Amino acid sequence: MAQTYAVPGLTPQQWDSDFFVDYVRSSRYKRYFGTDEAAMFQINEQLGSKKGDSITFALVNELIGLGVTGNNTLKGNEERLGSRSHKLTVDVLRHAVAVDDWDVQKSVIDLRNAARVQLRQWAQSQLRDACTNALGQIDGVNFSVATNAQRDTWQLNNRDRTVWGTTTVAQTTFASAISAVTAGAQLTPNLLSLMKRLAQSASPKVKPLYVKEMDQEWFVVFIGSRGWRDLTEDNPTTNLLTLANRDARVRGVDNPLFTGDSLVWDGMILREIPEIQPVSTSVYSLTAVTAIEPLYLCGAQAVGLAWAQRTKSTTDTDDYEFLHGVGVQEIRRIEKLRFGTGATDLTTPKDHGIVTGFVGAAPD
Hints:
- This protein has helices at residues 10-25, 108-114, 116-135, 148-157, 174-178, 189-201, 225-231, 240-247, 256-259; strands at 33-34, 41-44, 54-60, 83-89, 91-99, 162-164, 209-211, 216-223, 263-265, 268-272, 292-298, 303-318, 323-336, 338-340, 349-351, 354-360.
- The chain folds into 2 domains: 11-62 and 81-135 and 304-346, Major capsid protein gp5 fold, CATH 3.30.2400; 146-302 and 352-360, no CATH class.
- The protein is built from 9 helices and 16 strands.
- Strands 6, 7, 8, 9, 10, 11 and 16 form a 7-stranded mixed sheet that branches.
- The chain starts with 9 loop residues before the first helix and ends with a strand.
- Helix 1 packs across helix 3.
- The chain is globular and about 75 Å long.
- With 364 residues, it is an alpha/beta fold.
């Protein structure tokens, strides 16, 4: 009888592929991943087939010209395509676990499987946190390590796509702008609608996501736990969001108010992200006297994910082959996409697909 043997080297490759798919699929942001310019989290894997340390995302703004009608001449009345680019420089991300007590000889693939759960959970948290950090980045720098000067520049450049408390303000510094956020400036449905209007009127506009199955355009808003608490407060007689989702959507145990799933308001899909943390006013030397939490209204091309190398597993042996280790590595970069509004891609950059809000979010 003919017998089939595994091809050497094929099994680890299959493990790597399955591991990558599983851990990406488990991300809270996965449903918004895509490879084209219509995706909120746009994935680019150009470096997977060639050498290099950076990937460039093409950012194309919508046309705003009126065109011509009738017998009017089109030549000379063309509109310049508002195309800009954003370069992401990738880096290596690695981690490993060690497994001992190997009294019985095991194969390489068994070793990988033994550490699969722990490594997958680590990779999931890294991807989730990288996406969350990207939403709040200050021109490519994580908010927690941005300087006052960097925050000031970002605030001035993004005046048409930021909300502070219950209003939009044109302050000269980040600290003065966030000082407008009072304890009573909590997240409300009306504030969400204000953020949507900003997205629609910003220059250039924030492009909504088109959902083909529903034939509708949507924005998605990522909200921290305290903001979510205030938005869904237990006051069904005055909370318009609660009324809309309770009475105008599926009733019973499948209603999102009971399942904790996405809520819907005014053309926006609302999702709670517990990892969105409040701003510490003491750490950032701000003059505001209340706890403040950010939220992010997102459209197309809000964040870029540059993958130069998908997850790859590695193994190692030490201590006279008693201690066995297995690791994973990938080469990537996740960053909020920006476009230059000045003479080049790097001058006067604005966040491409995000409106950022700051609201009062007192501790429980």
